[in-house]
Amino acid sequence: MAKQKGFIKLKGSLGGLTFYKNNGKDLIRTAGGIDKSRIEKDPAFKRTRENMSEFGGAASVGKALRQGYASIIKSMSDSSVTGRLTGIMKRINSLGAGKRGQRIFEILTNKAVLEGFEFNKAAPLDAIFYAPNVVPALDANRSIATWEVPDFNTSTYIQAPEGATHFKLVLASTVLSDYTFNTTSKKYEATNSDDNETNGIAFSTEIPIEGMVGADTTLTVDLGFTAALPATVAVINAIGIIFYQEINTLFYELASDNAMKIASIG
User: What gap in Å lies between CA 199 and CA 227, rounded to an integer?
Assistant: First the structure.
């Protein structure tokens, strides 16, 4: 890798060299790489094809989870959340049944790999909000999620960012299906596509950051299922906190230290 100097900056390939920009710098590298058709057909690249297939599946499953939290994830996550979720899904895939390149993504079976995931690595929930509480519970059909937080002292159990006057507690639930490899399409697909990404979210009222809350807080999400869900789908419950600043009776969401983590999967 070399740097481009001078006022004329090239982009693209020329004479066996590739000119490109990375992190604001103009760089040069030698062009090359293995032909795509060789990777797709050559027996020597069988393991590469297997890894590509499963990595693509991991990206798809991670995207489905992010879609389930689409209404809130932008304000609760860091820039690395996509890659970190893909990595976790690949770990789940490595535990799945089947031959390499087609191993199943079994979410509920391997829920321990995903539980505790922090959407904002720089602001883990347990470092921001540490009032005693019980992880969200599900009803018999796995349709209704409930999170209960007993009354607590906000001055003691919350590490609020500068300028915050209030906060909301959040319960967000989404359904994530297992994924299996379709030998016809050569892609991973949701086992239960109709249920996949079904989601709901509940917020508390704005709670002042001063003294006791004054009452227990109970948040409930009803996903609307009338029958028990199959074992090939998981209900993923995330809990979080969002900070606000009150100005002239209006509440403005703060951009820092909002936190959310996956607390339970059932």
Answer: 16
Which strands form 17-22's sheet, in the order they lie side by side?
2-3, 25-30, 17-22, 12-14
Say what the pLDDT of residue 50 is. Answer: 74
Q: Assess contact for 111 and 256: CB atoms under 8 A.
A: no
Phi then psi for 202, rounded to 5 degrees?
-135, 140
Q: Cα(95)–Cα(110) distance, rounded to whole angstroms?
A: 8
Question: Mean pLDDT throughout 170-196?
Answer: 97
Closest Cα partner for 134 from 152, 123, 124, 146?
146
Is the pLDDT at 201 greater than 90? The verdict is: yes
- Rounded Cα distance between 64 and 119, Å, is 15
The pLDDT, as a whole number, for residue 1 is 44
Same domain, 164 and 256: yes
pLDDT of residue 256: 83
Q: Give the span between the Cα atoms of 260 and 237, in whole angstroms.
A: 10
Domain that includes residue 5, residue range: 1-32
Least confident of 10-24, 112-126, 198-212: 10-24
Shared-domain flag, residues 238 and 133: yes
Instruction: Give the three-class secondary structure for 138.
Output: strand
Residue pair 253/194 in contact by the 8 Å Cβ criterion: no
Sign of CA dihedral 157, 221, 92, 65: negative
Residue 4 and residue 100 in one domain: no
